[in-house]
Protein: UDP-N-acetylmuramoyl-L-alanyl-D-glutamate--2,6-diaminopimelate ligase
Amino acid sequence: MKLKTLLSSLLHYSLNKDENPEIDSIEMDSRRLQKNSLFICIEGFTMDGHQFAKQAVQNGAVAILAEKEVDNAGVPVVIVNDTRRAMAILSDSFYGHPTQHMHLIGITGTNGKTTTSHIIEKIVSDANVPSGLIGTIDMKIKGKSYKVANTTPESLFLQKAFYQMKEEGVKTAVMEVSSHALDQGRVRGCDFNIAVFTNLTQDHLDYHRNMDEYMYAKSLLFSQMGNVYKEGTMKAAVLNNDDQASTAFKRVTPSQILTYGIDNKSDIMAKDITINSRGTSFLLQVPGHEERKVDLNLIGKFSVYNALAAISACFLSGIALDQIISSIESVRGVPGRFETVDAEQDFTVIVDYSHTPDSLENVLRTIKEFASGKITAIVGCGGDRDKSKRPIMAGIAVQLADEAVFTSDNPRSEDPAAILKDMEEGVDKDAEYRIIPDRKEAIEYAISNAKKDDIILIAGKGHETYQIIGSEVLDFDDRKVAMDAIGGIKK
Ligand SMILES: CC(=O)N[C@H]1[C@@H](OP(=O)(O)OP(=O)(O)OC[C@H]2O[C@@H](n3ccc(=O)[nH]c3=O)[C@H](O)[C@@H]2O)O[C@H](CO)[C@@H](O)[C@@H]1O[C@H](C)C(=O)N[C@@H](C)C(=O)N[C@H](CCC(=O)O)C(=O)O
Ligand SMILES: Nc1ncnc2c1ncn2[C@@H]1O[C@H](COP(=O)(O)OP(=O)(O)OP(=O)(O)O)[C@@H](O)[C@H]1O
Ligand SMILES: N[C@H](CCC[C@H](N)C(=O)O)C(=O)O
Ligand SMILES: [Mg+2]
Structure:
């Protein structure tokens, strides 16, 4: 594609010379350049990509997109206000607007994005619709899994992935949309047909300055729904009516709205919820349909919210209600979300990705609803992430579990002892808890002391198969460590 053809999708830019090279690829990393590429300089959080312009030209770039003057080695330089956002628009054009050729469902919210997106993908593929998925655990194209670096990848990766999906015949794609991605404009250019909101509680206050800014970032998914519109295409916001933030999203979205809820009157509702240690049942109310009983294999009131969000999105996508219900009833769970580690021991071990105050509280309250033995919570907090959630999470663990064990999550560049100190700030001086900084030892301690009917919650890392200590990424999987520890005591 010629440079000027590519640039025609931008509202505004300036070009320093009247040249029009052929562009065969778009790149944002000077170390991974191809011949005849357009190099996009990004001022990042750790590096300024503008300093690599000359290196990029030496490595094959024939044009540069930047926010300021660069050492360009003679190639055309395009100046725009914001290169990350321009990259999203250009990538969408370069790959032929792939999301305009499929039904795209985006999910945002503090908790439940991964779970809800996996449920939707299951319902869609059970309905024999070729499906794609992008999120925290992986990217899936018609069931085949690929690695991703971010929950919501950078636009360049994203549009290339959608192009691959389109080429492979994907008709419906579902993706998690993180607040970071919205803030950085990674999903500008995505033609969302349905935008789903799960809930908003505290997280990521290391990145967003306060809850209002965090909510504003989330609201962009809904306010930008009208940015790409072709007459006749479905555009809808699916909002949790029991969460206050939905009021703001209702105001900013230009699209049709479908609400779901348990407590407040909503379009799609769950009533008469019953929870046991194996699942959750409820009566489902959907407009134009008789009330229906749904038996989920997923546990907790929060699982009902995820189910309602998924049912609402699939209902709007035109999948028959019978089909939706039979699929959702067959969902066995999502890796690392309330996943039990079972070696036929007489106590229960649950690995769960609760790394926010709200998710930890929900999971512990859910466990309390069916526990007959002692509840032990193993909890840590990530380094280089929202520090203000540390004392809150520690307080919740002490308050709701019978025994709280504080340990390390991914300390990253921080001192694990300092993170544990921050956690301790949240508990009363006379409260009882145990500190075991080494995560493996913490898990082994809890398992070797478990008695019949006890429940051990290993929170925070869910599906993760690594632990980041300093700059090292070490093999670590809570499920495997727990399984080995159970094996050890059964010998
Ligand atoms: C804070 C943040 O969002 N960082 C993201 C950001 O990195 P950055 O701005 O630091 O990039 P940088 O290293 O400064 O580099 C700037 C530019 O220079 C270029 N460069 C750099 C070196 C070089 O030699 N040559 C070169 O060209 C880089 O390719 C880049 O274009 O841009 C990168 C590329 O897209 C992201 O991978 C990276 O995510 C990091 C890994 C991250 O941890 N992000 C988290 C905070 C995040 O986004 N999380 C959310 C999920 C949260 C949730 O689910 O709860 C997510 O969507 O994943
Ligand atoms: N609807 C919900 N409300 C509150 N907590 C939830 C909900 N759904 C799941 N959780 C809890 O949050 C944890 C993370 O769930 P999930 O991975 O689905 O969320 P996410 O939004 O994708 O998180 P992340 O932003 O880290 O990717 C789960 O392990 C569970 O403890
Ligand atoms: N997407 C989340 C993941 C946190 C997972 C937890 N294990 C940690 O490392 O803090 C974040 O980046 O905040
Ligand atoms: Mg996720």
